[in-house]
Design a protein that fits this description.
124 residues, mainly beta, globular
Length: 124
């Protein structure tokens, strides 16, 4: 069982940066791949980034590649999403997710643990 709590969201201007954190409970966090998804108002939840257990392999949506960086610190049971050069279209609720399974890390169906989400709003 893993519990996830996101933090770090807020209201920023276009071009600014934010770092989201996802704190996980449980002693076996390093056994879980972790992803970030986002959901804008009226839209489907979409993949943003994912990182495998060791942190050596990462995946990104094309829309954030080169601007966002996912990382993890297994000693702190925490995953981060560094977001640079933010755009108004990045506005959404951002969710952290974890899975013990291997699979398509850009597919939300792969993940069985989810956080409550943190709001990111980017003004133009």
């Amino acid at each position: 069982q893993v519990q996830l709590v996101e933090s770090g969201g807020g209201l920023v201007q276009a071009g600014d940066s934010l770092r989201l954190s996802c704190a996980a409970s449980g002693r076996t966090f390093s056994s879980y791949a972790t992803g970030w998804f986002r959901q804008a108002a009226g839209k489907e939840r979409e993949f943003v980034a994912a990182i495998r257990r060791s942190g050596a392999i990462t995946y990104y949506a094309d829309s954030v590649k080169g601007r966002f960086t996912i990382s993890r610190d297994n000693a702190k049971n925490t995953v981060y999403l560094q977001m640079n050069s933010l755009k108004p279209e990045d506005t959404a609720v951002y969710y952290c997710a974890a899975t013990a399974y291997t699979g398509s890390y850009n597919d939300k169906r792969t993940y069985n643990y989810w956080g409550q989400g943190t709001q990111v709003t980017v003004s133009s």
